[in-house]
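Fold this sequence, please.
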Amino acid sequence: MLKEILRLFKKSDLFMEAHQEACQMLKSDNQMFDNVCAKLRGRPIPHPDVNIFDEEKKVDKTERAIRKKVLTHISLSNIADTPGSIILIGIVIDLERIGDYTTNIAELSQVISQKLEVGELEDELQDIENNIAKIFDVVTYAFESYDKKSAQSVASKTLPRHCDALLKRLMTEDLELSPQNAVISALYIRYLKRVASHLINVATTLVQPFDKVRFLPQNSSNK
């Protein structure tokens, strides 16, 4: 779908504006995610000037603005632009949902009195966090630069399965966590999975044909 989206962005000033706004949504999501994970895990806050809840409201407002631009474009153009318009709407929905999950993580950090400790799960959880951070960078570059190759490099990722495996360990093994840490860990892992899934949705949107958008490529790996 990248060609269709690129054609729309070049064709319409409204879509060029929508693309710029969607890129800003993605950057905001990234900064919000970095901050909330750092706060929950007791690490230095990388973007101290970013207020999570104010930023999330801006993301929601931008999504509505992009929807309006797309609707205006469709009403003034021909049916050939419809698939690309639908795809762009799908992307901004994913970006809005990422913002929602970052606020969910922020709410967890408000409940716990100290940083989240996960005991034996620490290495695996850090690996998931680091991989999501890398996917954020790649998806941001791919979307900003219309880079299909970069999008393909993460479209096949099965990181959500790793989150499921970690959650299973949490539920089935005696990890000697406090009840509070166990509950917050379970919710945190679940939210990480959803953030990863929405980022991968954006990547697949850029590389898959319209009828296969949001499905992993058939040659997807288990990385």
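The chain has a mean pLDDT of 87. The domain at 2-212 is CATH 1.20.58.220 (Methane Monooxygenase Hydroxylase; Chain G, domain 1).
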